[in-house]
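Hi all, posting the design record for the shared folder.

TITLE: backbone redesign
STEP: 1 of 1
STRUCTURE INPUT:
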């Protein structure tokens, strides 16, 4: 239990908690409310769109950033903003790429007219006098970005990608405002002599309209009352009276209340009743036709009244005539053209999304139900088009791109035919040529489906592909085949076994070899055999090579001794091998020798064996070698004697083999074929990286050939050198023919076709890849054609008019009520139905006939029911027949009928002719040439050039042709007729010649000359010479020398050892002094030398001049034969080698040894020598020498394309002497890499053109001036110095002149009033068919209307209302003459190319009572050419009493009103300034104030008049009488006499002021104070009146534009 205190506390706590809870709930609800309002406090704010990225065209994408902004300006998290209102972050766009520059361009219109620059705040600029020559203006033009193909407008951003937007406005000048210029007034019209009140008038014409805001024309008419001497007595005025007819009312039907039950008509001319009534009267029947035309005939009326010459009405009886004007007539109730409702809109022409940004179009149409008749409203437009928006849901349009086939085979013959039209294939051709391919348009395949589909896209129309098409032809090259270049033969080798590894038998071969210097190229390149062999006996693969040492005596210093022999076993290649391989035992290690003693004879060592005298052995001789030795010292007493001379020489045979060499010859490799043995080697990628289909084999045949004999048995040739006959090869893949799918059939026409012509449709396909390597062949059919099915023939529609209805007059009741006559006759209308029928007489809609014809036969025509008094005639007879004579005429007749034959008026043959005559048609035609001759047109060639090319200069571009000239054919009367009457073709033609261009003609290349150097590098030259010069634009000649030749030089190389000196052994030494007993001492010896060709196998001598004369060996030399007691030394050995650097510090050494000691103790000569290595003396360096690259050398069969540039390699000694290349090779010098490279000779290609297109349609359908043309296109432009493309790619010729038939409107007739004298009438003009030659002029001749077809004009064109003014009426004058053509000019220079001329009509007031009803004056302006610049100046007459006449004159002398500047107008009245207010003064002719007669001028110092002083002796009264102002002078004139002596001299002679001047000044000041005081006192008294001279009103210089001259 709780106590009361605790309970109170608890209650208080509960109440407090409840209040706190309530407060918390309120806070939470407020927070929730704030949270709910958060959506309205954050908004999306997008950034600017970024650049368009992605695919080119409409597939691009633009993106932008998005922020969520609080209303207070700070950003929040994106989740704070409403996702439903989130703006898009990306959008599609049109990405502009560089290639779009070919598709889009800026289109700029012409500048619009220059308009004045508006002033600030949009207020009109007031016209001020500031304008001197011109005002500033602006002119604008339209600039828009368009797509080139279909001229549709796209967004400007696309074009701005390539070029900045051209300016759309520019400053310009507008001439100052020009007021209307009018001529002088004419003379006043004459007044008649009557006494009635009359008006006379004068008029003027507008010469130039107001321009650039100038003032409008003033009134062109002025009227005034005639000065009559006396007015007419009352009632005796002379008036004329005229019958005036009013205009016809609108056509209406009779109202019901006009006819009562008894048939009497009650007239009611009200027009507000809508009730219609059907009459049953005989002469008025409702004219109902079957639909579509219901014609209703009503009537119309007009009022007739009598007017007096003063413009007032008079009693009708005063104007009565014999025949009263018609006041009621029949008419056709007007009906507007009625059309059907609009059809529904056609589907949008754009059914897909494409790169083009242009919208699609849709259309709807309506048909004519009723044509307009009776002047009703004409038919509105029957076809309506509007752009339709392309929905984004549409599928993307197909994209199309250019495709090409493979390049076809390279055709060299095309270029060779250009250079020589008579060229024909004589063998394999190579070098530059032309190859072609097919270019077609196909649908682009999306990248995702390219690998899935194997079908080649079918070709479509080429217009669907945008951008330039790929080239359909290009230059190509067929590699020329070249043979191998091989080295010279090596020496014959030793006799060896065929196979040293397996030696068999005693038969062997000796071989010689050569190697390939440059490989062959091309499929036909050939390499000769590289190995030749000859059979031999006792072959040895291994031999001992023995080297001998010096002779060493066995005992003592001379006598018998021995030489040490060193033997090495070598193989046939000269390589050291093991001695066990040599078949024989090694030679002994020692060999006996002998050293001469002191008294012995001393002999030299044997020389080397000479070269063999022959390279092979023949029947007549064998080869020989020799060697020799000489006696160095004679024997002494007791010494060993010298051998005989025969023992000093040795001979041996050499090259005893036959001259018949054996070698292997091969045939070319066969094709690569499959072989089961090499299937394991199959591969997919070839050695050269190309796709292949496995490995095959190639075979060839090898056979043994004996030189000079031919093929022999295979075993005669060594099998080891047999070339291979089988080799692996890469099998090329089979290539099947690939063709496109057939194109779509060309569409058959949807609309009907006229006549019975068969229409065909076709389709085609294109070969993409030709078959190769045994692949599937191409199909035979590439083009198919078939006739279109279900082609409907266009039905021919024509109008079928019915017979005319009887002539319908005004209803009798109406006629009697108005005219009071009952005879049913006079003018009426008749109608007929016209229906549209097809050629099978079936009815059709009116639209069908309206489409096929120009107009429609008339439905209504006027007619007449003859009255009793009218003349009646029979129908015209037929025309009489014509004879064959062209001068004859034909006629037709009619006769009067009934009572008309007795009426006198009907007998008038001028009014009523009874005979009509016309000339007979004549079949004589006259032809006359028209226009210029056409271009010379060559006959079409039946033969197409290869691959569809037409090559300029191949016989189709020059030679004999025909040129045409059109003829205009006319009949004898000068009417143009169809040219087929004069010529079957419509042309006259004559032969013409287009001169053929002739190229520069050179001879063939001469053969190469010999090399200019016999050793090392030289030059070979060949040349061409001029045969014929070019003319008629032929290909020019190359640069020729003075002898009209062109040369070609290439480097050449001659082996330096080709021609060498060959020496025989020296003869024995011939002692000079033979008397000496010992026969020793000095002497001479000789030898034979000859020049030999190393390449000659026979070893024959050649002329000595071929060998180097600088190196000719000596034929004689001094020698010595030592005596027995002298020391004998051996021959010097060779010098040791110098280092390659030829260092002068290094030494060169040679030695010799003692052969026989001297008899006494005398020392022997030195046994060694040294010398320094001096460059270019005894030491030489060697280097390779390269020539420059030669010109590009082609094969003999090629004229251009791929060739070879070569350079030659030689070896040169440091002293400049060329030596053999082996000298450089022995020193292992670095050899240059390339001595030949491929090069390209540009092909000279003449311009290649397509064939001519078909002739276009004539530019005009008939008449003169029509032209038709044909064009051709450049397939391949000129390459190099080829014959250029002709400038004439388009040919034109005049069309045959066919006659034109046109409807021509005649001149308006005079206003016909139908019985009245004046008032409202109508004018008519005729519509006639004329024949002409294209321009309707005075020469147009009328012909039968049937030649022009249906009349295209409505009746409103042939008839118009007019009026003839009655006497007293205010009426317009006729048009004035056109003014001369005037240009708008600034400072005398034309501002525009077209001028303008004006004419005007003004009104003439004949009675003041009618002047309020006068029409407005009319101004008409038209442009003109050949205008002149005129300027306007103010002219003035001489002054006369301070007045003169001022007028404006044009530069051609015409006085005008307007044109001159009002601000520059000179004054017409002269006034003095200041005005002459002094007594007795007036304004003189000179414009200054002077005094009257009897007074003298007293002048101030500034030249103005001070006052007039009376001349003494003159009469005052007379002076007062002359000037009214003299009576009121306030001062007596005697005062002048008082001051006369000094008043004019205020200064002393020395220039000082006189005393009286000071006195007068002081007195004047006192008098002034007195007068002021007096005036104050007397201010209430009236001032006495003073009369002043009347002030002249100044002349206002404002120009009101209407000054009379």
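Okay, here is what came back for every position:
SEQUENCE:
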């Amino acid at each position: 239990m709780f106590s009361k205190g605790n309970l109170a506390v608890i209650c208080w706590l509960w109440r407090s908690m409840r209040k706190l809870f309530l407060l918390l709930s309120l806070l939470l609800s407020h927070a929730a409310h704030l949270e709910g309002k958060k959506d309205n406090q954050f908004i999306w704010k997008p950034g600017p769109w970024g650049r368009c990225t992605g695919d080119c065209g409409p597939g691009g994408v633009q993106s932008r950033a998005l922020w969520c902004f609080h209303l207070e300006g700070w950003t929040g998290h994106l989740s704070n903003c409403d996702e439903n209102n989130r703006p898009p972050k990306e959008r599609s766009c049109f990405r502009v790429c560089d290639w779009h520059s070919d598709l889009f361009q800026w289109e700029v219109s012409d500048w619009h007219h220059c308009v004045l620059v508006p002033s600030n705040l949009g207020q009109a600029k007031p016209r001020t006098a500031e304008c001197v020559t011109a005002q500033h203006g602006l002119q604008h033009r339209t600039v828009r970005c368009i797509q080139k193909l279909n001229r549709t407008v796209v967004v400007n951003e696309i074009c701005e990608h390539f070029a900045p937007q051209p300016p759309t406005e520019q400053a310009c000048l507008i001439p100052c405002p020009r007021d209307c210029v009018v001529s002088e007034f004419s003379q006043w019209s004459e007044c008649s002599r009557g006494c009635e009140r009359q008006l006379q008038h004068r008029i003027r014409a507008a010469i130039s309209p107001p321009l650039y805001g100038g003032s409008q024309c003033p009134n062109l008419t002025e009227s005034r009352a005639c000065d009559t001497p006396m007015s007419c007595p009352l009632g005796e005025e002379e008036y004329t009276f005229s019958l005036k007819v009013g205009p016809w009312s609108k056509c209406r039907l009779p109202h019901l209340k006009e006819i009562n039950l008894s048939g009497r008509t009650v007239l009611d001319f009200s027009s507000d009743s809508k009730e219609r009534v059907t009459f049953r009267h005989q002469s008025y029947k409702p004219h109902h036709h079957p639909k579509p035309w219901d014609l209703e005939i009503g009537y119309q009326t007009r009022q007739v009244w009598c007017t007096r010459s003063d413009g007032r009405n008079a009693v009708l009886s005063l104007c009565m005539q014999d025949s009263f004007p018609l006041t009621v007539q029949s008419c056709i109730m007007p009906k507007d053209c009625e059309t059907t409702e609009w059809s529904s809109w056609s589907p949008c022409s754009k059914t897909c999304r494409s790169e083009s940004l242009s919208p699609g179009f849709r259309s709807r149409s309506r048909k004519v139900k009723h044509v307009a008749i009776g002047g009703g409203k004409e038919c509105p437009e029957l076809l309506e088009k509007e752009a339709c928006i392309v929905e984004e849901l549409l599928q993307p349009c197909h994209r199309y791109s250019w495709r090409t086939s493979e390049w076809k085979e390279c055709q060299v013959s095309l270029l060779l035919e250009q250079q020589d039209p008579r060229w024909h294939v004589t063998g394999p051709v190579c070098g530059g040529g032309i190859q072609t391919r097919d270019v077609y348009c196909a649908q682009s395949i999306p990248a995702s489906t390219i690998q899935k589909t194997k079908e080649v896209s079918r070709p479509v129309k080429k217009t669907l592909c945008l951008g330039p098409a790929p080239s359909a032809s290009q230059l190509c090259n067929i590699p020329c085949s070249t043979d191998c270049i091989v080295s010279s033969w090596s020496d014959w080798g030793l006799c060896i076994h065929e196979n040293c590894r397996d030696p068999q038998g005693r038969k062997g071969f000796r071989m010689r070899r050569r190697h390939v210097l440059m490989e062959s190229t091309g499929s036909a390149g050939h390499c000769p055999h590289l190995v030749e062999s000859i059979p031999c006996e006792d072959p040895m693969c291994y031999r001992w090579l023995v080297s001998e040492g010096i002779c060493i005596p066995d005992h003592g210093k001379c006598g018998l001794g021995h030489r040490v022999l060193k033997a090495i076993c070598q193989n046939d290649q000269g390589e050291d091998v093991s001695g066990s391989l040599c078949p024989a035992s090694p030679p002994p290690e020692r060999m006996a020798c002998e050293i001469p003693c002191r008294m012995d004879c001393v002999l030299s060592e044997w020389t080397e064996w000479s070269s063999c005298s022959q390279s092979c052995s023949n029947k007549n001789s064998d080869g020989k070698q020799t060697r020799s030795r000489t006696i160095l010292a004679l024997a002494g007493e007791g010494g060993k004697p010298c051998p005989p001379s025969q023992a000093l020489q040795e001979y041996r045979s050499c090259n005893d083999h036959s001259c018949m060499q054996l070698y292997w010859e091969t045939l070319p490799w066969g094709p690569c074929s499959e072989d089961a043995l090499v299937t394991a080697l199959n591969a997919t990628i070839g050695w050269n990286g190309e796709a292949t289909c496995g490995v095959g084999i190639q075979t060839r045949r090898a056979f043994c050939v004996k030189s000079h004999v031919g093929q022999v048995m295979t075993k005669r040739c060594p099998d080891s050198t047999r070339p291979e006959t089988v080799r692996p090869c890469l099998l090329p893949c089979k290539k099947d023919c690939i063709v496109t799918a057939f194109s779509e059939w060309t569409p058959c026409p949807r609309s009907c076709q006229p006549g019975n012509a068969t229409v065909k449709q076709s389709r085609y396909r294109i070969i993409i890849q030709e078959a190769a390597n045994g692949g599937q062949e191409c199909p035979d059919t590439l083009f198919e054609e078939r006739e279109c099915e279900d082609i409907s023939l266009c039905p021919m529609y024509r109008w079928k008019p019915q017979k005319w209805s009887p002539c319908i007059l005004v209803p009798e009741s109406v006629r009697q009520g108005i005219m009071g006559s009952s005879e049913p006759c006079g003018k009426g209308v008749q109608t007929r139905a016209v229906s549209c029928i097809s050629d099978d007489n079936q009815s059709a809609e009116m639209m069908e006939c309206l489409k096929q014809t120009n107009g429609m036969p008339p439905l209504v025509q006027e007619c007449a029911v003859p009255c009793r008094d009218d003349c009646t005639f029979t129908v015209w007879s037929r025309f009489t027949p014509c004879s064959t004579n062209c001068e004859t005429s034909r006629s037709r007749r009619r006769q009067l009928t009934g009572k008309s034959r007795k009426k006198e008026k009907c007998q008038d043959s001028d009014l009523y002719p009874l005979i009509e005559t016309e000339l007979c048609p004549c079949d004589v035609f006259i032809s006359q040439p028209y226009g210029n001759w056409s271009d010379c047109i060559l006959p079409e060639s039946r033969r197409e050039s290869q691959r569809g090319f037409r090559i300029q200069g191949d016989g189709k571009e020059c030679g004999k042709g025909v040129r045409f000239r059109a003829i205009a054919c006319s009949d004898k009367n000068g009417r143009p007729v169809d040219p087929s009457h004069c010529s079957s073709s419509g042309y006259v033609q004559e032969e013409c010649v287009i001169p053929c261009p002739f190229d520069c003609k050179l001879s063939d290349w001469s053969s190469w000359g010999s090399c200019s150097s016999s050793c090392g590098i030289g030059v070979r030259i060949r040349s061409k010479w001029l045969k014929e010069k070019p003319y008629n634009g032929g290909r020019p000649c190359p640069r020729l020398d003075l002898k009209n030749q062109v040369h070609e030089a290439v480097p050449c190389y001659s082996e330096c050892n080709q021609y060498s000196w060959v020496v025989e052994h020296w003869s024995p030494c011939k002692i000079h002094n033979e008397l000496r007993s010992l026969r020793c001492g000095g002497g001479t010896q000789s030898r034979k030398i000859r020049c030999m060709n190393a390449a000659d196998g026979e070893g024959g001598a050649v002329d000595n001049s071929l060998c180097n004369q600088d190196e000719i060996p000596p034929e004689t030399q001094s020698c010595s034969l030592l005596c027995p007691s002298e020391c004998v030394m051996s021959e010097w050995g060779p010098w040791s080698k110098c280092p390659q650097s030829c260092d002068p510090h290094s030494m060169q050494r040679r030695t010799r040894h003692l052969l026989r000691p001297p008899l006494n103790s005398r020392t022997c000569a030195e046994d060694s020598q040294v010398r320094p290595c001096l460059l270019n003396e005894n030491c030489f360096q060697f280097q390779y020498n390269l020539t420059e690259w030669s010109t590009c050398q082609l094969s003999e069969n090629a004229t251009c394309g791929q060739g070879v540039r070569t350079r030659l390699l030689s070896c040169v000694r440091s002293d400049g002497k060329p030596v053999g290349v082996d000298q450089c090779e022995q020193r292992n010098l670095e050899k240059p890499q390339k001595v030949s490279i491929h090069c390209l000779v540009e092909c000279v290609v003449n311009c290649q053109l397509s064939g001519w297109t078909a002739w276009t349609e004539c530019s005009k359908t008939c008449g003169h001036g029509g032209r038709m043309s044909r064009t051709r296109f450049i397939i391949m432009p000129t390459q190099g110095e080829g014959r250029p493309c002709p400038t004439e790619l388009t040919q034109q010729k005049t069309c045959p002149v066919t006659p034109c038939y046109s409807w021509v409107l005649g001149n308006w007739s005079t206003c016909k009033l139908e019985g009245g004298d004046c008032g409202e009438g109508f004018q008519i003009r005729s519509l006639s068919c004329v024949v002409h030659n294209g321009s309707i002029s005075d020469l147009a001749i009328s012909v039968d209307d049937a030649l022009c077809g249906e009349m295209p004009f409505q009746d409103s064109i042939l008839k118009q209302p007019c009026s003839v003014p009655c006497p007293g009426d205010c009426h317009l004058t006729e048009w004035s003459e056109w003014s001369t053509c005037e240009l708008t000019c600034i400072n005398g220079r034309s501002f525009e190319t077209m001028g303008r001329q004006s004419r005007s009509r003004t009104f003439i007031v004949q009675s003041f009572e009618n002047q309020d009803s006068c029409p407005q004056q009319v101004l008409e302006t038209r442009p003109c050419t050949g205008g002149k610049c005129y300027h306007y100046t103010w002219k003035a007459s001489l002054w006369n009493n301070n007045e003169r006449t001022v007028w404006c004159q044009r530069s051609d002398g015409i006085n005008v009103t307007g044109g001159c500047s009002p601000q520059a107008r000179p004054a017409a009245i002269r006034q003095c300034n200041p005005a002459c207010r002094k007594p007795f003064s007036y304004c003189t002719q000179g414009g200054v104030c002077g005094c009257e007669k009897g007074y003298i001028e007293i002048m101030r110092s500034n030249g103005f008049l001070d006052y007039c002083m009376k001349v003494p002796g003159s009469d005052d009264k007379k002076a007062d009488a002359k000037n009214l102002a003299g009576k009121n002078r306030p001062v007596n004139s005697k005062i002048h006499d008082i001051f006369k002596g000094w008043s004019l001299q205020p200064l002393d002679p020395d220039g000082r002021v006189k005393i009286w001047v000071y006195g007068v000044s002081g007195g004047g000041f006192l008098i002034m104070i007195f007068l002021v005081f007096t005036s104050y006192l007397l201010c209430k008294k009236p001032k006495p009146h003073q009369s002043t001279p009347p002030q002249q009103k100044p002349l206002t210089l404002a120009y009101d534009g209407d000054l009379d001259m």
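COMMENT: The CA atoms of residues 342 and 366 lie 5 Å apart.
Let me know if anyone wants the other runs.
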